[in-house]
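INTERNAL AUDIT FORM
Audit reference: QA-55
Scope: verify that the stored structure record matches its stored sequence.
Auditor: D.O.
Record contents follow.
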Amino acid sequence: MGFTGSITTLLIALLVLGVTSSRVVDLLTGISTRLKFPKFLLSFVVLGLGTSLPDLFVSTQAAYQNQAELVLSTILGANIIVICLVLGFVTIIKGNFVVRETTVIENFGWLFFVFAIPFFLMFDGRVSAIEGLLLLVVYLMYIYNIKEQEALIRREEETTHQIFMKGLQVKSLWWAVAQLLGLLLIAYVASNFIVDSAIVIVKDFNINPILMGFTILSLGIAIPEFAVDLSALRAREEEVIWGDLIGSFVTELTFVLGMAAIIGGTLIFSFEKFLVAYGFMVFAFLLVFFFAYRKKELSRREGIMLVLLYCIFLSVQFDLVHSIGP
């Protein structure tokens, strides 16, 4: 298979995975609403996990094939895209994107904690299965913390169980679960094609796996994130968007990375290749926190700044990869 065939297979598989995952998010939302999950818990946990499904499948499959650099670049790239491109474009479309002060303050400490734990685990250039289990524990701690927050937030909200997307009414719970399982199987098959095609492109055409993860893969798996947040934006559900973005951020660095380490055994890599990307990810988050905390909203100008920051990141990463070498 030539370069054109490999890239075509990769793009088709990414599209299938993106569309499938978007439908999975719809079903998860419908099931959660049918079971009367509060909106705050729904947006942070259900949507955060649901929109991270493409990365979960791709990362675990790549870890199983001992492609640690592909795993880490996809996870870090996905988070940078979430905070820069997804939030940036949503803010540009919205104009003035309001954020509740309690949302920023209550989650800042947790996000700082989530930044720190993977950083120290990755510093020695390896993430073992035991460390992967530790990351899963951190994720469960995060869910418990969100549940405690929800008890406070629910008193402020009267529209907890409203649905913000079309077609989410689940009439038959068992049929919805059956569809969910079928879609997850399709997503798993698509992830196999994605990883296999990416490995062929990397090996046969001398493309750096880190750049592959930071660009094509992470952009492709961001499709459900864009779909969910644009739907929530149309329904004027800013809190749902913030919950999804923060939930995805935490899920990537804890649940997705942890599962990849457990399935892959031990991820071994050169940490210096990812240090700049990790720094960009933290800087982008701190920038958003500063904007949101100072004015309690993001403006269209700040959304443009976030998009430009992603362009700067790609430029720096291209130069870095070529200077460090394979």
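Auditor finding: record pair retrieved intact. The chain has twelve helices and four strands.
Action required: none
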